[in-house]
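=== Structure Prediction Worksheet ===
Name of assembly: unnamed complex
Input type: mixed (protein and possibly other molecules)
Chain count: two
Listed entries:
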Amino acid sequence: MGDAEVIPIGTRGRPGRGTGKQRPSEAARGLAPGAARRTPPAKPAPRAPETPPAEARVTSLPGVQEEPQRAATTTVERSGLGGLPVGDLMSAFRYAAVEVFGDDWEPRLALFLAFMRRRVTGEYAVDEYGFDADLTERFFMAALRPIAEKWFRIEVRGAENIPTSGGALVVSNHSGTVPMDGLMTMVAIHDATGRFLRPLGADLVFKMPIVSSVARKGGATLACNEDAERMLSGGELVGVWPEGFKGIGKPYADRYKLQRFGRGGFVSAALRTGVPIIPLSVVGAEEIYPLIGNVPALARLLGVPYLPITPLFPLLGPLGLIPLPSKWLIEFGEPIRTDELDPGAADDPMLVFNVTDQVRETIQQTLYSLLMQRKSVFG
Amino acid sequence: MGRVGGRVVLVTGVSRDLGRRCARELANDPSIDRVIGVDVVPPRGDIGRVSFIRADIRNPVIAKVIVKEDVDTVVHMSVIATPGALGSRTPMKELNVIGSMQLLAACQVAPRLEHLIVKSTTTVYGSSSRDPAMFTEDMSAKRQPTAGYAKDAVEVESYVRGFARRRPDVRVTLLRAANVLGPSVDSPIASYFRLPVVPSVLGFDPRLQFLHDSDLMAVLQHAVLHDVPGTFNIAGDGILMLSQAIRRLGRPVLPLPSFAVSRVGSVIRQAKVADFSPEQLAFLTYGRGVDTTAMRDVLGFEPAYTTAEAFADFAASLHPGFNASERVLSGLSRTLVGAQNGSDHG
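=== Predicted Assembly ===
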């Protein structure tokens, strides 16, 4: 590469205006004497690095099209493949890989590629609810973890109350206009125990496009007795938010006031399957999208339970969708055992109401004590 | 019961591929003396030792056949999902509903009848956003099917239940089969997956269950030979998501909003490329899963193929698609792993 290279200027001795085209223009061909004969030469003219003599110019003309290398001015001819800085590219790639995957980038990159291959070939398994553990662990959790750790700075307390195996029912308060608390609880539980929380979602979730398919892949299923009991007896860690839309869509003024706990269906599911109920209190989710208004007419038109107005949404448009960075405290309470009760306890409405109230009171009291401990909303 | 001869089985709907194969395999069973195939048109393929009687189940003549041939077992396979050779929906509905009524009426007056096996379908559970993840046999559809094959199947099942009440001495087994798939199966879902570009409903990823056609044959035979009454869901183990299934085929997917899918579906239907029925749209939006615990524990049947294996067997019969992204990734991982090994040693 050290040799000086002749950079041809002009037409390289062929008729034409040096446009770089393979084929001279009609007018240029007419200028060349003998062009009308169009007899190919007996053998291809040898490649000449310098400007060929005038005779060669004329005779080699009809052969121009058969020789693509003889393009007048192309960068390929001048630099060639040998000029590619392969070494530089490889080291740049290596630096980038170390930057993205860390020092052990090679096995991690191989793992990542294996994951991508599984995704495009469909060679992964889903369970009967459509839960895709591979995707959830490697994509959803990885995407949500920075939000949980950096944005909301979640502090988890009482993680030892989550059983490490077997079925259990996590019952949580619900707030925040958008069910962000559910997602954050999933990340917190997965990082604390390595188990996946299987949320029970309202039927609206499974009616909405995109949301429905993401929810099923993330492990959610419909909040109905059949599915709850099926999951609990299958030994899953199931999450419910019994306040539902009443809790998540309540005005900011009512923050941290628990709403009615549905009809207690979650308690009877736990009683029937004999799994413990773990009360969970989440502080911080109320402030991410403070709900100061609602457009009921438009909400009815769209078929959603409420249409939120927050201080930033819709005022700032899509920017208003960024949640406020409140500080979160989440506390798992002592498990409430249900396996000591009679098998017929689930059919005793009084008992079901009592257990529901017990769970509700525990969560409410924990919410108050967590609020006392929190220095400020964004602290 | 003191029957002198061997068993005589009558199979309806033998002009269709699955009915014909079922009859032929039953005829090969040593414990069955005689198999009679009944249909309006003669079967096209080989029926082996099956004796074919050309009779219309929509006609009272079927009662005479049952009595005269001394039939003790009726296998009803004539509830069809697609009009096929019948041409349109009206004769299909007539065959499904009126045919089943006539057949059951004939069965009711047949004194020697002991067993009735009806092949139904899991589409009786419908498909909606409010469905539980897995349907057990005692659940019913959250949204009753209002048209097409699913409605026919629901009606046929109600007639079968009525028959079971009126003839408690006859053992009635109702088999609700999931979507049947196999290399030679021609069904709406099979022709859907055979499309070169597979349309899907944007934003929805239904859960699917399949039953291999050889397993359908096996379970029908099992039900004929084992005296287990009741209703059973029949499906292969496990679940495939639609997106996963299409990826395993290596075919391009075309996500469209649901109204556009139904439009495309009717075009496909008219072009006779695939029978893309409107009631399939709900299935391709919300999917369906059925619980097969009773099939294992009560009926005592174990399918040989899981859902994924049945689908793989079906996919192997198709021309593989050009899965560009898979090729790029496998090439990339080969190069990188090669480079990695090279750099380790060098």
